[in-house]
Amino acid sequence: MPPELALRKIKFMSEYLKRWPELKEFIDDVKEMMSQYQRPAEQVIMDEADAIFYLKVSKRCLSNWREQGVLPFHKLGGKIYYIQSEVLDAIKSGRIKIKNKAKF
User: Fold this and answer.
1) Disulfide check for 71: which of 24, 50, 56, 65 has CB 3.0–4.6 Å away?
2) What is the pLDDT of residue 28?
3) How far is 41 from 83, CA to CA, in rounded Å?
4) What is the DSSP string of the chain?
5) Annotated domain spans of the chain
6) Torsion angle of alpha carbons 19, 24, 26, 29, nearest 10°?
7) Of 68, 75, 53, which Cα lies nearest the Cα of 90?
8) Positive or negative torsion for Cα 60, 62, 63, 68
């Protein structure tokens, strides 16, 4: 590595380290702001693709649960939606059985 490039890198790191407390404070502030804007489960609305991803099930399985009345859903303009808190309640109550597919 040429000496002038090494000197530039050293200067950059020196400036970076001088500003680290300021940068860390900024990062902490951003984390705090983001946590304040995170929606509670009763306000999170999922469409079918979100629910499939969230529950890790097939489209057919989700449809079966809907037809059997196992999973509450809402229909608006021909599209089906799920409220996250209602899905969580269905899991907690045992109406939905989530199988652990992880292999150890």
Assistant:
1) 65
2) 87
3) 8
4) --HHHHHHHHHHHHHHHHHHHHHHHHHHHHHHHHHHTPPPGGG-EEEHHHHHHHHT--HHHHHHHHHTT-S--EEETTEEEEEHHHHHHHHHTTSSPPP-----
5) 1-38, 41-92
6) -160
7) 68
8) positive
Question: For 90, how many CA atoms within 13 A lie in the half-sphere containing its CB?
Answer: 21
Domain 41-92 adopts which CATH fold? Arc Repressor Mutant, subunit A (1.10.10)
- What pLDDT shows up at residue 100? 57
Q: Model confidence over 58-86: pLDDT tens digits?
A: 999 999 999 999 999 999 999 999 999 99
pLDDT at 104: 37
CB atoms within 10 A of CB 65: 20
CA–CA dist 17, 23 (Å, integer): 10
Kindly give, in sequence order, each residue whose CB lies less than 8 Å from that of residue 34, ignoring residues fewer than 6 positions away.
none
